[in-house]
Design goal:
This protein is of the alpha/beta class and about 200 residues long. It has eight helices and seven strands.
């Protein structure tokens, strides 16, 4: 018969693990790392840089929400890797693009910004679904690639344009970019790697 004491003992470790991860605000990578057992160990970023990346992305979204004149009628995404911020999406004019760039430069611990916003109407919902699928397809192909650690790369798709961030060797970067270029649906590949050799 299952008593309350037995039930408590049985679920104590999973509960404590979940609670500690939830208390670590912005540690999505850590949750994934615990789930897979390898992500954190194979990610070239330090744990501090991983946490800072989450904070940089959150700060960028908060800045955008606080500036409705910039956010209104535009579509923007923020991706940070090793304290380098990539901005993708569509904006209505160059002035808005530059204003956002200037606002984001004040984010703590940010080393660099790659502003890849295009001057266009916001992408359709169907286009965004297609980009999500394309990102997943490239990530899957990288995972299946022999002698390549897919966890060292961050992939973002925007209207068929594929952006690749990561800390990697030149050989691994070239191999990953080649895999991405050969993936059906990828119109262009923009590599924003930081090389470790």
């Amino acid at each position: 018969m299952m008593t309350l004491a037995n039930l408590t003992r049985q679920f104590r470790l999973p509960f404590l693990l979940t609670a500690s991860l939830l208390l670590c605000s912005g540690c999505a990578e850590m949750v994934v790392g615990v789930a897979t057992g390898t992500v954190i160990a194979s990610d070239k970023r330090t744990l501090g840089a991983t946490i800072e990346d989450q904070q940089i992305e959150s700060s960028a979204r908060r800045i955008l929400r606080g500036n409705p004149s910039i956010a209104g009628g535009n579509h923007m995404n923020f991706t940070s890797y090793n304290r380098v911020l990539l901005i993708t999406g569509e904006v209505r004019d160059e002035k808005t693009r530059n204003q956002l760039d200037d606002l984001l430069r004040g984010i703590p611990n940010l080393r660099r910004i790659h502003n890849e916003l295009t001057l266009a109407a916001p992408s359709s919902g169907m286009s965004r679904v297609s980009d999500t699928y394309l990102t997943a397809k490239v990530k899957t192909r990288l995972l299946l690639e022999k002698d390549l650690n897919a966890n060292r790369f961050k992939i973002v798709s925007e209207n068929g344009r594929l952006f690749m961030l990561g800390l990697c060797s030149r050989k691994d970067g070239a191999q990953a970019a080649l895999v991405a270029r050969k993936t059906a649906g990828v119109q262009s590949v923009i590599t924003l790697f930081e090389y470790i050799d």
